[in-house]
Automatic annotation (TrEMBL):
Keywords: Signal. SUPFAM superfamilies: TPR-like. The keyword ATP-binding does not apply. Residues 1-29 form the signal peptide. It holds the Pfam family TPR_19. This is Tetratricopeptide repeat protein.
Length: 141
């Protein structure tokens, strides 16, 4: 399947998900601000998620999903938002939809790293599994 144009994803979500993201330390403040502007424009709910406003982020991402269909970037961010809200079932459902999506395109993360949307979804699922396992261990203690 051919790859499509690069898209942006919520960078710190993938930091948490896969441990692979960090904003570039060598980037100038102007370049970083430009990246953040593009990123915020591309992914609805991004600013809300960064600020910990999970309910607002979910509402914006669900609206975007209804408007744009099952775009992998939106699904990944929605999965991450549901995970933060503690709804691991919905989080898994969104991440699986992103992983299995017929659309697979390169995504530029806020670090500048390019990763396929499918690989990003797989990393997110691994992160979710680790979170669920950790939560189960905490309950047993």
């Amino acid at each position: 399947m051919a790859k499509h144009a690069k898209k942006w994803i919520f960078g710190s979500a993938l930091t948490a998900l896969a441990g692979v993201m960090a904003l570039p330390t060598a980037a100038s403040a102007q370049n970083e601000a430009a990246l953040n502007d593009i990123e915020a424009e591309r992914v609805p709910g991004n600013d809300d998620l960064k600020q910990g406003k999970v309910t607002e982020a979910i509402a914006a991402l669900e609206a975007a999903r209804r408007a744009e269909g099952n775009d992998p970037a939106i699904l990944i961010n929605l999965g991450q938002a549901y995970a933060r809200a503690g709804d691991h079932g919905k989080a898994r459902k969104m991440l699986i939809k992103a992983r299995d999506n017929r659309r697979d395109y390169d995504m530029m993360l806020s670090s500048g790293e390019v990763i396929s949307s499918r690989d990003a979804a797989v990393a997110a699922l691994r992160w979710l599994d680790a979170q669920v396992q950790t939560a189960q261990l905490d309950v047993r203690r």
